[in-house]
Write a structure and sequence with these properties.
alpha/beta; 13 helices; 7-stranded mixed beta sheet; 45% helix; two-stranded antiparallel sheet; single chain
Length: 318
């Protein structure tokens, strides 16, 4: 096909990285070389220290270059791999400076999984739309409030920044980068060869853990929450719950929000959706789930489920 120039893809791998964050994306780019019939991508693993990089699983990875030995001007695409237990205090000033310089001189840069936290620490994504693993999205937003976090996205593109969700989403991001560079046909061929979706349906929230809605607040509220959880098919309207506590709807709603943190209606919907997910995972049909979990019908379930999980019950069940 005749590419104009070989593109250097460099992935920064900190100690404790998740191996698939590096190897999954690298396999996509390597397969793109095969499908293109020529070397389009030159792949480099960058380390912060000498010696093998010990991953979170204990498997050791051999690096190509130390970061301070890697000329910044040759990097086309710079990615930071996820590291489940990254210590921000351990990120040296020389590393931060190298990241900033490399990112500024690269055609594009980004992160896989929790690598977005490293980019944020380097102040490379302030004001940018990004995503990360759903489990650290709240931490990213709280620690770096200038970053615009989209926790449900599989991957996000904002200017020259490219970020992906958790672990295997790094492969989805790599496929998207291949499509940018080499077109849809080759990107699809790469996905087919690696037996993965070219574009998967839904977002990350369909893979997140179901909420553990423990009873909180004063004892009477906790008793009410336990009752509601055990009787999801019953009338759990605000008026019904307020009456059960012998309070006015206004007083009950204010009390519930103060002590639980969300409105009674939001809490009930979350609990019902959690129960619906469990039933769907065990093979129940949306119609059966709607009846068991207190939704008026399958269509009401579908709307609420999509609002919370971003896929329909039917897709989730499949």
């Amino acid at each position: 096909m005749g590419s104009a120039k070989v593109k250097t893809v460099a992935i920064l791998a900190l100690p404790g990285i998740q191996l698939l964050d590096v190897c999954g994306a690298m396999d996509v780019f390597a397969e793109a070389n095969s499908q293109a019939g020529e070397k389009v991508y030159d792949l480099k693993v960058i380390s912060t220290q000498k010696g093998p990089i010990v991953s979170s699983s204990g498997v050791r990875l051999v690096y190509d270059r130390l970061f301070d030995e890697m000329p910044v001007g040759i990097i086309d695409t710079l990615l930071v791999a996820g590291c489940p237990h990254v210590d921000f205090e351990s990120l040296s000033e020389p590393l931060i400076a190298w990241l900033r310089s490399s990112a500024s001189k690269s055609r594009r840069f980004g992160s896989i999984c929790s690598g977005a936290l490293v980019l944020a620490k380097a102040k490379l994504i302030d004001g940018k739309r990004v995503t990360t693993h759903w489990a650290v999205a709240d931490k990213l937003q709280a620690t770096f409030p200038k970053v615009i976090v989209e926790p449900d996205a599989i991957h996000v593109r904002d200017g020259k920044v490219r970020t992906s969700g958790g672990v295997t989403a790094g492969m989805d991001l790599a496929i998207a980068l291949v499509e940018e560079d080499l077109g849809k046909d080759i990107a699809k061929s790469v996905a087919n060869q690696l037996v993965m979706f070219f574009k998967r349906s839904g977002g990350q929230l369909q893979f997140s853990q179901r909420g553990d809605m423990k009873a909180v607040g004063r004892s009477a509220l906790q008793e009410l929450q336990r009752y509601a959880t055990a009787n999801l098919s019953q009338d759990l309207s605000v008026s019904s719950l307020a009456s059960r506590m012998e309070l006015s709807e206004r007083h009950f709603s204010r009390l519930f929000r103060t002590e639980v943190g969300i409105t009674p209606a939001e809490w009930i919907e979350i609990v019902r959706i959690d129960a619906a997910r469990c039933l769907l995972e065990n093979g129940s049909t949306p119609k059966q789930v709607a009846a068991s979990c207190g939704f008026a019908d399958a269509d009401t379930l579908r709307r609420a489920f999509f609002r919370r999980v971003n896929v329909t019950p039917t897709v989730y069940r499949k």
